[in-house]
Amino acid sequence: MSKGIKKILVLLLIILIISVVILKYPKPEEKMRVPEGYHERITLTSDVTINFVFVGFEENIIQQDIFLENLPGENTPIDWGRGNVFELPFEYLHYNLSYNFVFAQDGFADKLFDYSNSIVEWGPPTDYLIDYDEESGQNRLEEGEPIQYVNVTAVEDWVAENRAKYNLVFKEPEYTLFFFDSYSKGYMPTDTYHYWKFYEERYRPEEMVIDMQAWGGNYGFLWLDVGAAPSEYRGEDSAEAYPPVWHYNEDTWDEFNEMLTTVASFAVQYRFLPSYIYHPVNRPVYISSHIWVDDRSLITSDFEKKMDFEECLQRLRSYMPWLEWEG
User: CA-to-CA distance for 100 and 256, rounded, in angstroms?
Assistant: First the structure.
């Protein structure tokens, strides 16, 4: 047998081996990346209902068709990690989306905003709001006049505790976005402005975020108040601009609904069903809450008196209510 024929046979054998290997393993689109290597692709599909609850609105203002035309009918989170440059993307979760539109009873709006007004604090307006008031022609601010600030976490707790009385609790896992209109029916004073305020005691006790229109997350729901004062973070020419409800009228309610739909879309894709920065792995995770003490340090003799374990558990349950905490 000549050397040329031998080379051809060896080449054919190599091609045959490669073909067998390729046929043995799934195609790239049928695989998913996990730390242990490549496995058969698994597609997990879930039907998810997003609830939109309108508080303080006239029903004829909301145009559900605009929402449905612009919201996604499905969602597939992906892995944005840098490993995807070389490896297959993580795309095996799939959500089929449906939307539930609910108009809250007037009684709920009355109680909600009565409570909000009862905990109002007065303070100076932001520089941005002073400029906005003058440039927009609202002219609600006199020099040195304070505006309202409402504690968001207190109102969030109130909603969580009282919503069941008004049939505003939905099937778990819950994805609910509340839209508040605190302005049109005069639930909050219309001759001044109000912001939602959050005390952020992360670095120092007095630190806080004071000029918010939206909030939520501790209980599985979010809200946007279209009657809150505009924030300096909203840009006139950006997709994130949320003009307050008083900028609209009967000729522009479609634009108002498009703005609400933009907010709803952000909530669905970035808050409720987000993609991943790092590759998620589906496996049991056990978190140890042990407190380690340096054996060379001085151990306090009254540690149990200073450490309120029940309060720690309550705070953990409040910060991450979707987990079960035991101790």
Answer: 19
